[in-house]
Amino acid sequence: MGMGRASVGALLVALAVLAPAATALTCDDELPPKLVGNYSGLACAPVWNNFILRYSQDKNNVLRVVLSTMYTTGWVGMGFSKDGLMVGSSAMVGWMGKTEIPHISQFSLQGKTPSQVVADKGFLVSNDHDHTVIVQQAKIYLAFELRFPAPLKRQNVLLAIGSAIPVNNRLSEHQDKTSIVFDFTTGSSSSGSSFYEGLKRTHGALNLFAWGVLLPIGAIVARYCRRWDPLWFYLHSGIQFVGFILGLAGIVAGVSLYNKIQANVPAHRGLGIFVLVLGILQVCAFCFCSWNHILYVKSKLLDFSEH
Question: Would you say which domain of life the source belongs to (predicted)?
C-alpha cells in the first residue's frame, strides 16, 4: 500500500515537472493551419519569456511577422520604437474579445496613460486585411505585415502583455513588458534599455556619494575639527563645494532620465528638488561666510601692518 502511494506521488511530481515543458512555446511548434499558407518558411527566434518571434523580409521591405505566446485572456502587443522607449512608438496589439471575435489594431503610444494610447494611429504602414489573430490551445498568434522604407536590421522592439480584454479599443495597463534590440538579419536580440539603466545608475551613484558621503563628512569636519583653525574651514568649504557639484550633476542626470522615460515618481522628484534647494542655500551661506572670512583676514593684516 505504501509502495503504491509512493508510485502515485512520484507520477504526479513527474507530470507537474513535464507539464510546463509540454505547453511552453518553441520554434519547433507548428503554426495553426490558417497561418501556414501566408506565413510558412519564416525565420524564428525566442525573444522574451514565452514570446516566439517568426519573421521574414522581402525585396520590397515588407516584413511578415507572427508573434506567439501563452494566452488566457487580455492583450498582447509588439511595438516598434526609434529609441527603445514606449512614448513615441507604434505597436501592433491583438486580443480575443469576450464574444470570441479576434481583434488586431495599430496603436500610437503617445504617452503612458490609457488615454494616450490611441487606436488606429501610428507610423507603421500596413494593410489591415493582412492581419490575423488566432487563439489555439492556450496560445495566441498575432500575424501581420508591415512595409518599411528600408530593410530592418537592428530595431528597437517593445513586447508587452495585458491581463484585461480591451473595451472600445482602450488598452489597460500592461501586466509585463520589455524592450529589446532585435537584429532582423541575424535573429539575435539584446536588452534595449542599457543606456537608460546606465544613466539611472549614474544618477543614483552621484547623488548617493554627494549627499550621503561628502556632505556629511564636511559637516563632521565643521563640528569636530574647529581647533585646527583655519584649516577646518577650508576643508569644510572644499568638501561641501565638491559634494554640491557632484550632487548637482546627479540631479542633471535625473532630469535627463525623467525627460527620456517620463517616470511617474512625484515623491522622488519632490524630495530631489527639496534637497537641491537646501544645497543651493548652503552654497549661498558658503559664499557669505567666505566673504566675511576674507574681510576678517584683511582686517587682521591691516592691524598687523599698522603695528
Answer: Eukaryota
**pLDDT tens per residue across span 122-172:** 888 887 667 889 998 899 999 999 999 998 888 999 999 998 988 888 888
- Count of other CB atoms within 10 angstroms of residue 227: 7
Rounded (10°) CA dihedral 158, 163, 167, 173: -50
Q: How many CB atoms lie within 10 A of CB 114?
A: 11
pTM of the model: 0.64
DSSP-assigned beta bridge partners for residue 74:
none
**Beta strand residue intervals within 125-211, DSSP E:** 125-126, 132-136, 139-147, 154-162, 176-183, 189-191
Domain boundaries, the chain: 23-192, 195-306
Which CATH architecture describes the domain 23-192? Sandwich (2.60)
Strand 62-70 vs strand 75-81: parallel, antiparallel, or unpaired? unpaired
